[in-house]
Inverse folding.
């Protein structure tokens, strides 16, 4: 119950902060000031925006397909929110310790596409349909490299449970039921015979247990940008030249729901990247001889120190990824649609297929 | 075309990634220099052209770049120094100055530069919505009472409010001055007429003799 509250309130707060951060970071990168008027340094800007959108008239175009049009933003918002349910926040706090967490997450991210298509089709506007088609085409394409990257991690950790994957990446591994007798070796290779189970820190993160997962992480990160419709893959929206593709007909509260869903998606994919590749809620500092940095910065699971350290590490890593997403958006120009598909099908997918093979071989060396 | 591009740019993987990272480095530099702000200094300030980094935006209503002393912005008329000579209204290319004068009946003092004032300004209106900010009126002003100030931000929601009234007489006072003047004129006319009559009578008397 506590975890559910954390998911709904706490993560919604992160989303609100992210929308504010987006505007401020964009402004600073472009040598501007960004929002300054609402609250000190404009910190209430996102709240003001949402309040403004809530007050607006609820306009449904006369020719729109009403049930689809009204349902689409709710589906998008609810789907992304539901994704947060399986994210482990600390060693002992997880809203739903689903055994098939990773599978569920991939399904949730795909459900977003249905909301997009409903919004585009239901608007009864040719530009909205075109925008939705491109958006769906892009998201469905990029799900393949992203899914293969996730598959690599699943092969290494032999589990679909996100909490189990998290425990595997740190010094607390043996405290998870079912992993009591497991051991982590440097780069996951038993042949090296260097046991790092109690060294922990960055040496047990998935990108370190199987170094090629770093490439998988980069590809997952870029694909997740495409799945969130973020620059440089924002052709579906392209706010600088097209007016927002699939959601042209939306305004007021419905637009706010879509907007928040988009930013929630951004937070969600960053959280998933952290959990799968960057050691989840585990500390990055390893135990080095007498300086047991990892133990000091992990706390005792189940107590408030454990909760606090878990949240701090999970969120700080997520914030870095979210910052990188924003940073990339305000640096790179948009890809052309053929370049976008070229990158997905001719570059990422073959690389990921090779990596899946390599991960399978690596897994054989790990046991 | 393709050959040209591949000759011009080294399109191998590492140079492309290097170029991408270079771009990200550039934006990151700007992000970390955001602590610095451009200062609202005047153009003659030594620092004016030496602020290559940091945020360039000034939060305008709170901060603003200083404007030059000789800038041509909102007009102001110091009515106590005005001799209501109407030169400004005559030179104005867009007829934005409207003046009605009343001759003074009594001594109304001198301006600060010593010119004797002989006229009341019943109406002295400048329509700044029509003004073209050429500054001709200020150059012809003999007492330098009409000047251009540094104020450039004076928008109004109603265009009528763009008409500035500079007279120091209320309409009642103006009417009173006009009546005084008319009365004085009537008195003068009467005395003149009386004098004329007296002279005519005198000449008539002479003629009779």
């Amino acid at each position: 119950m506590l975890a559910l509250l954390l998911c709904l309130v706490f993560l919604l707060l992160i989303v609100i902060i992210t929308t504010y951060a987006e505007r401020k970071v964009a402004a600073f990168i472009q040598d501007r000031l960004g929002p300054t008027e609402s609250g000190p340094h404009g910190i209430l800007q996102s709240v003001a925006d949402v309040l403004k959108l809530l007050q607006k008239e609820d306009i449904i175009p006369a020719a729109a397909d009403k049930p689809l049009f009204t349902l689409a933003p709710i589906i998008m918002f609810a789907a992304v929110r539901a994704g947060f349910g399986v994210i482990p926040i600390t060693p002992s706090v997880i809203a739903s310790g689903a055994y098939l967490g990773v599978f569920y997450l991939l399904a949730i991210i795909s459900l977003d596409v249905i909301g997009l298509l409903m919004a585009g089709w239901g608007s009864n506007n040719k530009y909205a349909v075109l925008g939705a088609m491109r958006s769906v085409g892009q998201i469905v394409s990029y799900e393949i490299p992203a899914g293969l990257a996730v598959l690599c991690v699943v092969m290494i950790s032999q589990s679909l449970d996100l909490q189990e994957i998290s425990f595997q990446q740190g010094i607390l591994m043996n405290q998870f039921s079912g992993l009591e007798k497991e051991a982590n070796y440097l780069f996951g290779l038993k042949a090296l015979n260097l046991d790092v189970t109690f060294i922990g820190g960055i040496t047990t993160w998935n990108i370190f247990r199987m170094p090629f997962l770093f490439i998988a992480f980069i590809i997952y990160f870029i694909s997740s940008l495409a799945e969130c419709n973020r620059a440089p893959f924002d052709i579906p929206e392209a706010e600088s030249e097209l007016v927002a593709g699939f959601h042209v007909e939306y305004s007021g509260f419905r637009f706010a729901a879509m907007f928040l869903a988009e930013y929630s998606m951004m937070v969600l994919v960053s959280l998933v990247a952290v959990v799968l590749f960057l050691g989840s809620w585990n500390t990055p500092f390893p135990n080095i001889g007498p300086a047991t940095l990892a133990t000091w910065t992990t706390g005792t699971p189940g107590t408030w120190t454990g909760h606090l350290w878990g949240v701090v590490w999970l969120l700080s890593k997520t914030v870095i990824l979210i910052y990188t997403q924003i940073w990339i958006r305000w640096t790179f120009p948009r890809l052309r649609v053929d370049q976008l598909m070229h990158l997905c099908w001719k570059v990422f997918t073959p690389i990921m297929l090779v990596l899946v093979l390599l991960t399978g071989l690596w897994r054989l060396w790990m046991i | 075309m393709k050959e040209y591009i591949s000759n011009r740019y080294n399109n191998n993987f590492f140079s492309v990634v290097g170029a991408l990272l270079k771009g990200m480095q550039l934006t990151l530099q700007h992000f970390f220099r955001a602590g610095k702000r451009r200062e609202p200094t005047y153009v003659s300030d030594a620092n004016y052209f030496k602020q290559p980094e940091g945020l360039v935006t000034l939060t305008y209503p709170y901060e603003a770049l200083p404007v030059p002393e000789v800038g041509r912005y909102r007009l102001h008329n110091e009515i106590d120094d005005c001799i209501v000579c109407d030169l400004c209204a005559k030179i104005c290319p867009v007829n934005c100055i409207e003046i009605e004068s009343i001759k003074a009946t009594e001594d109304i003092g001198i301006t600060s530069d010593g010119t004797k004032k002989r006229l009341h300004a019943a109406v002295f209106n400048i329509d700044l919505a029509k003004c073209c900010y050429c500054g001709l009126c200020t150059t012809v002003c003999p007492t330098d009472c009409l000047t251009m100030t540094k104020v450039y931000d004076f928008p109004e929601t109603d265009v009528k409010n763009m008409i500035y009234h500079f007279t120091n007489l209320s309409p009642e006072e103006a009417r009173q001055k006009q009546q005084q003047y008319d009365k004085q004129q009537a008195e003068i006319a009467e005395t003149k007429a009386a004098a004329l009559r007296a002279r005519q009578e005198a000449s008539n008397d002479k003629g009779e003799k």
About this structure: DSSP finds five helices and five strands in chain B. The longest helix of chain B spans residues 171-208. The mean pLDDT of chain B is 88. The radius of gyration of chain B is 34 Å.
